[in-house]
Design a protein that fits this description.
The complex is a heterodimer of chains A (444) and B (282). With 444 residues, chain A is mainly alpha-helical. In chain A, 65% of the residues lie in helices and 4% in strands. Chain A contains 17 helices and 4 strands. Chain A has a two-stranded antiparallel sheet. In chain A, a hairpin with a 2-residue loop joins β1 and β2. In chain A, α2 runs antiparallel to α3, α5 runs antiparallel to α14 and α5 crosses α15. Chain B is an alpha/beta fold. Chain B has 2 domains: 157 residues, P-loop containing nucleotide triphosphate hydrolases (Rossmann fold, 3-Layer(aba) Sandwich); 76 residues, no CATH class. Chain B has a 6-stranded mixed sheet with strand order 6-7-8-3-9-10, sandwiched between helices. In chain B, strands 2-1-4-5 form a 4-stranded antiparallel sheet, covered by helices on one side. In chain B, α3 runs parallel beside α7, α6 crosses α7 and α11 packs across α12. Classes of the chains: A mainly alpha (444), B alpha/beta (282). The interface between A and B is large, with 39 and 45 residues.
């Protein structure tokens, strides 16, 4: 930059445009902060008085304008010789891409090894382990929803309903029939898959926004039924005393014949948490394994073809009804597994755990990770759930930071963190497909 | 015609959209291993006929029958659209190309073979446990895909996204994908649209190859007269939803009604055109 002549340096600017933009920015900032910051009511003897704080408002407005000017001078500036405003020089860019590819190749195995040794690391305490269990639960839910949204391209805003069905299936079967966790786990999955079919039928003909609205309504219907069917589900009181899982019949309790005693360990409550951690890790890996397997089978390719073009699918003899229903029910099945895990971990469930915000969070993980990308879901879960914990001290500003981060990432990477699609089969060389070519399916 | 009965018979087909009669009492035959062209001016109802044959529209009236070599017949107007390529073996392509653009060329061709692969994978249950039968079927499917990639010259691009291909290759890939369903009749909706002369010559060769090697007939809608006159055995001309001519390319070329329809001459002037042609040919 240093040896550039003045004319060249100035070539990327359009002064008129920038000036106009800054005036608009200043006006907008004045409209927002002028009303919210400049006036404050204060309790004083004799009632409320108005406290004028024009100076603070002025500083904030000035900061916004200067910030925008800086953006114009740096990121938004069109480099004179390049088509795009990329700030890195070309040699660096190839180096950066090579480095990124190298990291990407080793990333997944490293992450897996870390996940396995995580409970035994010296710094891992009860709090971190609980957080790990939570993150893995969302990884599993994200992977399950990825089948419906990422592969089949069907926007599902009521995914938490299947999570609730899984959790309540286990809790109710244990409550009324005394079934154990290991018996209920497959049953919960089957029941959730069945409800996935039930949701699938009415939405078969729906596209776009309508599909999103009906799935959203389905999620709410399930929650409200659970809330109001007091005699059966306990309504808002929820269900408590849900049995804990055993390790091949060994309970995690103090005393003879239990887990600690059997392996000659000193009893500790952490054993059960470690066990739960590995349980959810195994369930999540099972989800990933099956999804990857399905992607390479005709059914998985049919899901992706459905996302790309439904009419073309029908012209090739694919029964799109069956394709949609399998996507809904298999996605729901994994939520059912995760739900029964949730019930056994908490020992208590109530409809409050299955609100719309949960659906939104799982969907955000899938979209943020990059739709259809398995590793993207992991990164997004760690960032969203872990990140949420880091900002716990920010209290009410937490949601604000969260929202801001989402907006930033969506501007930076509109197709999610990992937007490339890996082909399910290849002849000579596996080449990732650019995200721009991949369709997003219905409801986006 | 190579076999006594035609593969596809369309009888008294009517398609009404509200007040508009898009197809008006249309009857024609498509012979086995024949290349039949459906031509006509814009808005004549050609694509509507296609959509009726391939099940995307349900005709208001009429019957469409597919007669297979083994004697079985299928009434296409009563079948679901996805069953027509699956059981009646009638495949189609689209006027505006409909590829799975985010999937690779090979994947597109594999989706074309969905139904046999689905059976081979025991409807996913066998496939998920990696049974040997599925592996074999998958290899056979890859071989078929390779065969069609060779015929269409796409072997080099096998692992590229379909959306990355140039336009002419996308047209070819759509035909290859339809051929992977193993059709007895291939319906092509303007396959030469947007192709340059060299590419449309390649297309002619490909269509002749399909007719010769694959025991399949072709029904095509086309505006490119180089393709229509060059390879068709039989031409059906539509205008305002009605059939105005039906015959060999030679007959159609000299049909006054066809010329009148293409030149936009009024009905009462058709006789004049007829005279003119006779004047030229004598």
């Amino acid at each position: 930059m240093a040896n550039m002549s003045l004319k060249e340096t100035m070539a990327g600017f359009n002064f008129q445009k920038i000036a106009k933009d800054l005036v608009v920015t200043a006006l907008l900032a004045t409209a927002i902060f002028g009303s919210t910051i400049a006036f404050k009511t204060k309790t004083a003897p004799g009632g409320l008085v108005l406290d004028l704080r024009f100076d603070i408002a002025f500083y904030i407005i000035a900061a916004v304008v200067v910030g925008r000017l800086l953006l114009w001078l740096t990121f938004w500036r069109k480099a004179p010789n390049k088509a795009s405003g990329d700030i890195l020089p070309k040699g660096w860019r190839t180096l950066y891409a090579a480095l990124l590819a190298k990291i990407a190749k080793r990333f997944a195995p490293t992450l897996l090894v870390f996940a396995i040794v995580f409970p035994f690391l010296p710094f891992t305490d009860r709090y971190l382990l609980d957080l790990g269990v939570l993150v893995l639960t969302y990884v599993m839910l994200g992977w399950g929803l990825n089948i419906v949204v990422g592969l089949a391209g069907l926007l599902d805003l009521g995914y938490v309903a299947f999570y609730a069905i899984g959790a309540y299936s286990y809790a109710l079967l244990a409550h009324y029939f005394g079934f154990s966790f290991w018996m209920c786990l497959p049953l919960a999955g089957i029941l959730a898959a069945f409800w996935g079919l039930i949701l699938g039928f009415p939405v078969l003909r729906l596209r776009g926004d309508y599909l999103a609205i009906v799935t959203l309504a389905f999620g709410e219907i399930i929650r409200i039924v659970l809330l109001n069917w007091y005699q059966f589900t306990g309504g808002p009181d929820g269900l408590s005393g849900i049995p804990r899982p055993s390790f091949f019949g060994l309970e995690f309790k103090r005393g003879e014949g239990n887990f600690a005693d059997f392996f000659g360990l000193e009893y500790s409550t952490i054993h059960r948490i470690v066990f739960l951690y590995f349980l959810i890790l195994a369930l999540a890996l099972l989800t990933n394994f099956i999804t990857n397997r399905l992607r390479r089978l005709p059914i998985g390719r049919a899901w992706e073809a459905l996302r790309e073009d439904e009419i073309a699918c029908r012209s090739l003899g694919l029964n799109t009804t069956v394709v949609k229903l399998t996507a809904f029910s298999i996605g729901a099945m994994f939520a059912g597994f995760a739900g029964s895990f949730f019930a056994t971990r908490q020992g208590f469930i109530s409809p409050e755990s299955f609100t719309f915000i949960e659906s939104a969070l799982i969907l955000a993980i899938v979209v943020l990770g990059g739709m259809g990308s398995q590793i993207g879901v992991v990164i997004a879960s760690i960032a969203m759930i872990g990140g949420f914990e880091i900002f716990r001290e920010a209290e009410e500003y937490r949601m604000l930071i969260f929202g801001l981060a989402m907006v930033t990432i969506m501007i930076w990477r509109p197709r999610g963190l990992i937007s490339k699609r890996i082909p399910s089969i290849f002849l000579k060389k596996k080449k990732a497909v650019s995200g721009d070519l991949v369709a997003q399916g219905e409801g986006h | 015609m190579s076999a006594p009965s035609p593969f596809l018979t369309v009888e008294h087909l009517n398609m009404r959209f509200g007040g508009l009669l898009a197809v008006d009492d249309l009857s024609f035959d498509v012979g086995r291993q024949d290349i039949t062209a459906l031509i006509g001016p814009n808005g004549a109802g050609k694509t509507t006929v296609f959509n009726c044959i391939t099940g995307f529209y349900k005709p208001t009236e009429g019957r469409i029958t597919a007669n297979h070599d083994d004697g079985s017949t299928f009434l296409l107007e009563r079948m679901d659209d996805f069953k027509i390529p699956k059981t009646a073996k009638v495949a189609r392509t689209f006027q505006n190309i409909r590829l799975f653009s985010g999937m690779t060329v090979l994947e597109n061709l594999m989706v074309g073979q969905h139904n046999p692969l689905m059976v081979a994978s025991n409807f996913t249950f066998g496939g998920i446990f990696g049974l040997a039968g599925y592996k074999q079927a998958e290899n056979a499917a890859i071989e078929l895909a390779k065969y069609w990639m060779e015929q269409t010259g796409l072997t080099e691009r096998a692992d590229d996204a379909a959306g990355d291909l140039p336009y002419g290759d996308q047209r070819k890939l759509e035909i290859a994908r339809a051929m992977c369903t193993g059709p007895k009749l291939l319906c092509l909706d303007e396959p030469a649209a947007g192709l340059n002369p060299r590419e449309s010559d390649d297309l002619n060769k490909l269509l002749l190859f399909i007719r010769a090697e694959c025991d399949a007939g072709i029904l095509l809608i086309e505006h490119d007269m180089n393709v229509v006159m060059g390879i068709s055995d039989h031409i059906v001309v539509l205008d305002y939803g009605k059939k105005i001519a039906d015959g060999t390319p030679e007959e159609i070329r000299n049909d006054p009604k066809v010329i009148a329809a293409y030149l936009g001459v009024d009905d009462d002037e058709v006789a004049d055109v007829e005279q003119e042609i006779e004047g030229v040919s004598t």
